[in-house]
TrEMBL record:
Superkingdom of the source species: Bacteria
UniProtKB keywords: Cell membrane, Membrane, Transmembrane, Transmembrane helix
Alphabetical list of SUPFAM superfamilies matching this protein: PYP-like sensor domain (PAS domain)
Domain MASE1: 34-294
Chief localization: membrane
The species this protein was found in: Achromobacter seleniivolatilans
Record localization: Cell membrane
Name of the protein this chain belongs to: MASE1 domain-containing protein
Signal peptide from the UniProt entry: none
Keyword Membrane assigned: yes
Membrane topology summary: Multi-pass membrane protein
Length: 430
């Protein structure tokens, strides 16, 4: 007997709480222990990315997991149970609202629409978190509430825009039958990855940049972005994600040490906010690169699929398709020439090569036929001729085609089909 009830949920979705906790620990290590201001807050990026990659039936379980993870983090670093519970509720619900906004605006986790939807979702999540959580801090008369609220919004936005695209981009990766990038791309990507690490270290290392003019040290910040984009281009989405995570860890860690091109003596914590803006720009740039690269790959794959279906249809109907260009004399044949005539695909490329393969008794008639087509004759009577087969004999071909006129009345192209008949084994000169 059939039963009804709630849809099955996958308890493994609770494992998303582990990277949420790890990113929370890493973020707290970079924040101000005195004012408890959050200058770096990466967990919302994990939560939003996890929601976008999971079925909605699993969202309640994930909400519970993120609530527990946030509660643990807040209790460990603040030790105030009531505030910890309230902030855990606020943090988990704001990430859920951000993910819901992204899905409502862009049902597919790809394309340029997803980029705009992700920006909108990050703003909605940050605003809701700031209004509710900031309101609680204000009512509870927490010290430095306004300053903490300002850094909270910046850190939340950065966390979503840095990590969520990396997670969704990696999840869209699918191995190809070709086995991935070739040796040349692997080496080029490896070189770019090493150069990105070296340039990032040089850019954010205080001992190196202090001896350089400010203009030079600031311009060096563009080098890691160039190498990160190159990695994304040659290694695809996994490479872009690896580059983003590596750049994020190195830049945030060195910036937290008070190093890098964004350091201000009057505001030691400004460096983390400025570094996150730098990382957000990098993440969005890589997301756009992966989006455009993915769209191109999808278009090529779709074209290959249609070509495969078309070739199967031609093979099943025992036909070849042709296209003749009267301007350069090229003749393009689509279909299985190996099966039809036992010759390679590029063996017939123009009318001269066609006549060379045609039966001697048919060449004159074939020449007159094509001369009439080049002149624009619209005679649709099928032309029968024979083409040599490599195994011996002559394949009978029925040509059905016609010229297509250009805007000025001249012949733009001649297109049609060759229907393949039986192979005759009679002598060529019989």
């Amino acid at each position: 007997m059939a039963t009804t009830g709630t849809p099955n949920r996958n308890p493994l979705c609770l494992l998303w709480a582990i990277p949420y906790l790890l990113c929370g620990v890493f973020s707290h290590l970079l924040n101000d222990p005195v004012s408890h201001a959050l200058f770096v807050w990466l967990p919302p990026g994990v939560a939003v990315g996890a929601y976008l990659l999971s079925a909605r039936r699993n969202w309640p379980l994930m909400l519970l997991g993120f609530f527990c993870a946030q509660l643990i983090l807040t209790l460990l670093w603040r030790g105030q149970p009531l505030t910890a519970i309230f902030l855990a509720v606020t943090g988990s619900l704001s990430s859920l609202l951000a993910a819901w906004t992204v899905q409502r605006l862009s049902p597919r986790p790809e394309g340029l629409g997803f980029v705009a939807a992700l920006l909108a979702g990050a703003v909605v999540g940050a605003a809701s978190s700031a209004i509710v959580g900031g309101g609680w801090l204000w009512l509870a008369q927490e010290p430095n509430a306004v300053f903490r609220l300002r850094t909270w919004v910046s850190a939340y936005l950065a966390g979503v825009l840095i990590l969520a695209p990396a997670l969704t981009g990696w999840a869209q990766f699918r191995p190809r039958r070709s086995g991935g990038p070739g040796m040349r791309d692997l080496l080029l990507g490896a070189v770019a990855y090493v150069l990105m690490i070296v340039s990032t270290f040089m850019t954010f290392d205080g001992d190196m940049i202090q001896n350089l003019p400010y203009v030079v040290s600031f311009e060096l910040t563009y080098l890691p972005l160039v190498f990160a984009v190159l990695i994304a281009l040659v290694w695809g989405t996994p490479g872009g994600t690896l580059a983003m995570v590596t750049l994020m860890l190195m830049a945030l860690y060195q910036s937290a040490q008070g190093e890098g091109p964004f350091v201000e003596a009057s505001d030691p914590w400004h460096v983390l906010l400025a570094t996150q803006v730098y990382l957000v720009v990098t993440a969005l740039l890589l997301l756009l690169v992966n989006t455009l690269r993915g769209a191109r790959a999808q278009a090529l794959e779709t074209a290959d699929q249609w070509r495969g279906r078309f070739d199967l249809a031609l093979a099943g109907s025992h036909q070849l398709m042709y296209r003749y260009n009267p301007y350069d004399g090229s003749l393009e044949l689509a279909g299985d020439l190996q099966e039809a005539f036992g010759i390679a695909a590029g063996a017939i490329t123009d009318l001269d090569s066609l006549l060379a393969h045609a039966h001697p008794d048919d060449r004159a008639r074939l020449s007159l036929h094509w001369a009439a087509r080049r002149a624009g004759a619209q005679d649709r009577t099928p032309l029968l001729f024979r083409v040599a087969h490599s195994s011996g004999g002559w394949r009978l071909v029925s040509d059905r085609g016609s010229p297509l006129a250009d805007f000025d009345g001249s012949v733009a192209v001649v297109a049609g089909m060759w229907r393949l008949g039986e192979i005759e084994h009679e002598s060529a000169h019989a």
